[in-house]
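Private note to self, pasted from the team thread so I don't lose it. Backbone tokens:
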């Protein structure tokens, strides 16, 4: 039997795009797919669009929130219903290409019992679906680490978040997404890679839509809470680190984040990072 893959599609005011996202799941070349759609209290007509897209598909589960809960809580609500061996977190403005799930299952079958995540190349598109660039234009295939990627993930960004497909074992081990955070991927990468191997598929299998007012675009503004979530993840890194090389990587990450705080005049968060820098340097490792 084919392993079941659960796609949890998260929607918040994505009425323009959600139909295409749902259709991309239905058009997968892999058959054993479960779709769960979660609407996080959209204020546009997203729910109407979702109901139209899943009409006649009784197997599709729909969760609607009355009040906005945030992506981490919304995802966990979908995860509670998911039965799959593997999980895809699909934002309702992104698109899976037809072989995304098949390629992911094949990667897991080759990867062994300690593999926790598969990620791929992606095509960045604009709001109208036009090509902007490939993820690999900035991050060439040969530069992407695999296997134990914990230390490289502290140092730099190289995973296109919408391409993630992870095992149920990994997400259950982590207890789902951390609902105290405003975004999920950095925390998932760090905690997941501490215990599991990550494998890269150098093929474009997802279209990532670049939306004008998306969370990613707001990340480097003064009042955005995502930077505070990054600080919280850095605190977790300090506790997870096992050696001096990882300690040094966190030192460099903290320095980078302090510079970002200076750019947006967030002196309070910069001060918190400075204290974390001192605590991190005070840790002593055997090697």
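Design output:
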């Amino acid at each position: 039997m084919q392993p079941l893959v659960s796609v949890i599609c998260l929607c918040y005011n994505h009425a323009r795009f959600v139909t295409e996202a749902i259709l991309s799941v239905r058009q997968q070349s892999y058959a054993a797919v479960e779709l769960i759609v979660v609407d996080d209290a959209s204020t546009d007509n997203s729910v109407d669009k979702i109901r139209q897209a899943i009409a006649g598909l009784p197997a599709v589960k729909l969760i609607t929130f009355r009040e906005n809960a945030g992506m981490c809580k919304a995802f966990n609500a979908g995860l509670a219903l998911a039965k799959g061996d593997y999980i895809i977190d699909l934002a309702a403005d992104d698109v899976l290409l037809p072989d995304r799930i098949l390629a992911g299952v094949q990667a897991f079958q080759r990867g062994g019992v300690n593999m926790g995540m598969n990620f791929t190349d992606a095509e960045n598109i604009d709001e109208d679906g036009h090509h902007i660039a490939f993820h690999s234009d900035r991050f060439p295939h040969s530069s992407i680490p695999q296997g134990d990627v914990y230390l490289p993930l502290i140092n730099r960004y190289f995973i296109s978040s919408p391409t993630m497909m992870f095992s149920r074992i990994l997400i259950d081990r982590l207890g789902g997404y951390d609902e105290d955070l405003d975004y999920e991927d950095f925390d998932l990468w760090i905690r997941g890679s501490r215990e599991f191997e990550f494998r890269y598929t150098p093929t474009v299998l997802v279209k990532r839509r670049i939306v004008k007012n998306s969370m990613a675009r707001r990340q480097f503004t003064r009042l955005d809470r995502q930077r505070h979530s990054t600080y919280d993840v850095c605190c977790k890194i300090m506790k997870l680190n096992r050696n001096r090389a990882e300690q040094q990587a966190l030192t460099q990450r903290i320095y980078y984040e302090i510079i970002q705080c200076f750019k947006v005049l967030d002196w309070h968060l910069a001060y918190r990072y400075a204290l974390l820098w001192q605590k991190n340097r005070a840790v002593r490792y055997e090697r």
